[in-house]
Amino acid sequence: MSASEIDIERIGEDVPLLEAIRTARAIRRLRPDPVPKALIRKVCEAGTYAPSGGNRQPWIFVAVTEPGRRAWIAERYRKAFRAYIGPAFERAEADPEFPPASLRNMRGALHLAEHLHEAPVHLFVAGWKRRAEPQLQALFPAIQNILLACRAVGLGASLTTAHRSFGAEIDAYLGLPEKTPSCALLPIGWPQGRYGRPPRASVDEKLFFERYAEAGDAD
Ligand SMILES: Cc1cc2nc3c(=O)[nH]c(=O)nc-3n(C[C@H](O)[C@H](O)[C@H](O)COP(=O)(O)O)c2cc1C
Known about the structure:
Elements: H1 17-22, H2 37-47, E1 59-64, H3 67-94, H4 100-115, E2 121-127, E3 129-130, E4 133-134, H5 136-153, E5 156-157, H6 167-174, E6 182-189
Helix pairs in contact: 2-5, 3-4
């Protein structure tokens, strides 16, 4: 879709919130077509409505769209990702008992690593350090808002952090000062597949009233 075909003001505005939450699965197979900058701005604006400690709004968004720069980033992400998940992935592929949904998820993650340079937008979320520590937790509400906004406007997106093993080098490349490291990389683009409900355990296995009880405990 080109910028002229999209009504940036209206796109995504009528998507029911809870349905969007339930169907915002990680979309890692992306088309290489460009995403209008105004739409990137729109999903980042959703990020700015997140809560933050003392309303300090610690986030900085850097959207990398230029192909040469994406290739540079993707090379490092791939290296980091292979070192991190490679051995576990090989074990999983060889294990007939490995849950198929988890294997599918791993394959998707691997696909993203192999094709990251094709994702038209590499959106980095960075933020202020506090007491010399990166404040990842302070950025996650903004990150989740952006993922949900992508869902609403029909963009595919996922949350990744594997680039952080090359963090300092990548941050310098992005022009981020040492005091505001990048915490997440959201590859964004038009999805090849569809949104849908991701596999999740029932809330009934996760929710307890008044007191937690181990499975099998008597009431
Ligand atoms: C803190 C955090 C870091 C993650 N880092 C990565 C990553 O580096 N690469 C990746 O492919 N998936 C990463 N994921 C996992 C996916 O983004 C996704 O949430 C997960 O696979 C579930 O996908 P689903 O919602 O489609 O079931 C990360 C998730 C979280 C919460």
